[in-house]
Amino acid sequence: MELNQKTLKKAYNYLSKDDCLNHLIIKFSGVIDISERYNENYAKALAYLIIEQQVSFKAAITIKKRFSDMITDLSNNEILKLDNLQSIGISYRKVSYIQNVYNYFQDSKYDFTSASNKDVITELVTIKGIGLWSAQMFLIFVLMRIDIFSPGDLALMNSLKINYKIDINNKKTVESLVEQWSPYKSVASLLLWKSIEEKYYYS
User: Is the distance from CB of 106 to CB of 112 less than 8 angstroms?
Assistant: First the structure.
């Protein structure tokens, strides 16, 4: 099942059993945009995710905008040949990772849309520079998979800590809570991210 407006409605209904999520649903259900980070060009989508790795939300937005402006109307092949990405604030290492992604999609015939979540992750992490976090973000925002939670996402874990007052270092506690949101973990994640972004919490 893919994440779309219809499944979003079902998800809100299901997740509203959780008092904290219900609080966030009341506040944010009308403003969450499930397609805001979607890109049908998989290489570009992953390049944006590489830019987001280990930088602040604000810095990522700025650099992604510069990257987007720079590659407007360029083909994947032309993007691969760019030699000035560092000039817009992308580190040398990340430039290398972005090139790896574009090189991968030069030849790849992999069918991401019909592959399982596990198989998508296994395939993507073969690309140097794409780890578990990036693969999980790709599943949520590009393939629109509805049941993904990323314990490696710092903002998400911070939101759990603030909203649920739990010890996020206790793996069992976190897993027990998150499992209650299945099969709509991605939607719970969207709500928890929005909570952190807007500094609006359940108390």
Answer: no
Dihedral angle, C-alpha 170, 130, 40, 44, nearest 10 °? 130
Report if pTM > 0.70: yes
**CATH number of the domain located at residue range(s) 42-141 in this protein:** 1.10.340.30
d(CA 186, CA 148) in angstroms, rounded, equals 5
* Topology of domain 5-34+148-198, CATH: Endonuclease Iii, domain 2 (1.10.1670)
Residue type, 121: I
Residue pLDDT tens, the chain, 203 long: 788 888 999 999 999 999 999 999 999 999 998 888 899 999 999 999 999 998 888 899 999 999 999 999 999 999 999 999 999 999 999 999 999 999 999 999 999 999 999 999 999 999 999 999 999 999 999 999 999 999 999 999 999 999 999 999 999 999 999 999 999 999 999 999 999 999 999 98
Sequence spans of domains, the chain: 5-34+148-198, 42-141
Find the distance separating the first CA and the last CA of the chain, reported in whole Å: 32
